[in-house]
Fold each of these.
Amino acid sequence: MDAVTTENASTSARRSASPAADRARHLPSQAADTRTDDPSAAHQGAPTATRTAPTAVSSSSRRQPETIPDPPAPVALDEILKDVVIVISGIENPDRRRLRDQALAMGAQYRPNWCPEATHLICPFSNTPKYREVKRTF
């Protein structure tokens, strides 16, 4: 076999290995810890690995398994913003109309001016008259 065929054979042999073997090949070795308590081992040239025993953990500090809550029930599109009242300031048509129509489709209510029922002011700048009105209110 020539060099190219040999390289292809070794590459295909590596590919046919199990996925677990691939993961193990890319993970750092657990024996990579070369610290030792023996000061003379540092001068011997061969690093040695020592492991410490796990520390005791009290039963009160152990983490309890987390329970995964059930996902919320799906909400109809026209109910997503059902308790939202929007006011739009500083945005001109056609963007204003598109934004208002999308909010209404999701269940929001629209008011042309700020009022006590309004929950959200949508504006691109902080120097609009409606923004200043809201700032004075709160």
Amino acid sequence: MGSVFFLVACAIAAAVAASVARSRRADARARSLMALAERLGLSYSAVDLFHDAWQPFPLFGLGTERGVENVVYGTLGEVEVRAFDYWYRSEDPSHLRAEPLLASRTTRYSCAGVGLGASCPPLVVQRHEAADRLLELVEGDLVELDLDAFNRRFAVRSPDRRFAMALLDQRMMAAVLTLPDPATLLVAEDRLLLVAPGLPAQGVEELLRAAARSQAAVPHVLASLYPLRAGFRPQDRAPAASDAARAAAAIDPAGEPSDTTGLWWF
């Protein structure tokens, strides 16, 4: 009986220690991204101020639980940008009975996005050696492009080959070739998103700058080929004042809310 109590006590102690370690990592992560936002002249929210947990990408439907945190947003250069941490939790049924503590796994991504002036079909551009295979979350055929150097490094998939060819012209391919090494490019509806396995603050900055460069390289013809359509989001509105106040309170102990007017993405 004593050995059972000992094992239970060890399990509880391990769980508490793990919880404390996670809390410290989360605090350090928040501080580093707040510092990044301040240095770049952007704003920071600890919570999902802009409802980023809803996105028109299959990635945001994975797992049994999911969430968004650590949002960095504002204008970088002349481009409205937003970066955030996205996580989802999935369960492994094989562990549910034998090892309950191993039954769930959390996957984390760093994301940076910009708006597009068009409503686009789904598209993914991913390096051939990528381990997470986000390429498989988009239906359609693989698309070969005209630049051999691009085809050797990246795979492109979309259900609309015409769209892929229109988006990935020579200028856009040149921009994609400069993406940070772990980044995958996703396009759907009126947004372009760069996604990478959890990055440090410096990597998030690189992702933000790459997203801004990518928006500048998007062909203007897309707006006429795929006109922007309104109303596809569950909430086409700016965040309510209560949302902004809650986010400001979470990051500003002095209780001085920052101005969020005009920062609604896209």
Amino acid sequence: MSRAALDTPMMRQYLTLKERHPDAILFYRMGDFYEMFLHDAELAAPLLDIALTTRDKGKPDAVPMCGVPVHAADGHVKRLAELGYRVAICEQVEDPKSARGLVRREVVEVITPGLVGNPEALDARREVSLAALDARGGAGEVGLASLDASTASFQATACEAGDGLPRALLDELERIDPRELLVPAAAREALEPALRARLPRVALTALPAEAFDAAAPAAEPDGFAALGGGAAARAAAAVLRYLADHQPFALRQTLRVRGYQLGDALVLDAATRAHLELFENGEDRSRRGTLIERIDETETPPGARRLARWLARPLLEPAAVAARQDGVAWLAERDRLRARVRRALRDVRDPERLLAKVARPGATPRDLVALGRSLAALRATAEALAAPDAELLPVPDAPRPAAVGAPAPLPELEQLLAEGAAELGHVAVEIPAGAGPSVEQDVADQ
């Protein structure tokens, strides 16, 4: 291709942005389309089943290109990420009407196999995890951290290193089933055979040693200091650095990291999960006929994900088992209360992923409205749980167990969301009277 074909203001801008993201397919915003050029276009067109064309058609040095409409981009981005590719989203960052010359553009986020884009394109019942493994070889600890960026669920653990990666850690990795795994660049070659044997579909991403520096993380969410600066903290630091480099806006949502021990729960290896058909059947690996399909009567996406986590990690501590059983028994014995709670939950969408979507570039007033309405619907859940028992049962009742938590009110947030949506979208938003409940982890942890 001749130099002249690339020596236009637009192509110079494109090539400058592409140089900053050489390992990603660049979605370059042009009006109502995202365009891809050169090798990106030749790579993406057959994967997305879209037409490959050229700029300056008919010329011998025409530039290969293809494109997708902005309104349909989420599905295409999801497809590329599932195939293991990175996608850099380049947006126009100034009003074309006021721009002098070429409109300024910047990459606003990079979607990777483990860092999803619009969470609405995901299966609401499943987590999509990014994990990091701090394994430096020799004696000491091996650290593991995992993050579902669509819900900000973030946890880290560590165990003693042995001859190779510990089996318990590999079993835990299989349970998490990350789409993308971050490893130290110096250790990738040594780690890859064992990791590929357990996780054949995972996208392995090598990071420099400084990304695993627990003394200088990109952010310090609540709980990070409690990890103690060891292998778990180093793995968590790598996740935070990767998040800061690719989707920095998501750091505001990643408010805490939970440390845990592998011995806190029974680790079920892949063979056991497959034999019991907990999540996938043996015929076509779908959910049909599995245990999770039979028992999942949840009303909300966060509830479905929480049930799957509980099933994948059965508790071992007798006190924790007894507390959960007390909560289940209390609800099972109260048909009318349980029916009221379920009716209230039907109006709750997916607050966890709505929070992630609101934090992303391109969030709309509609997203704020949806989040506000979910908060309002959760208030009815709290009221159902807090209703006097005399209204529900004809006999004296026991107090509600601690495991059955009620959402705490967040009236200020409800008000702010409603006002923000109305201001941005010029829409009328009803602000329900009373207190709005919290969607914080105090409910999700039950």
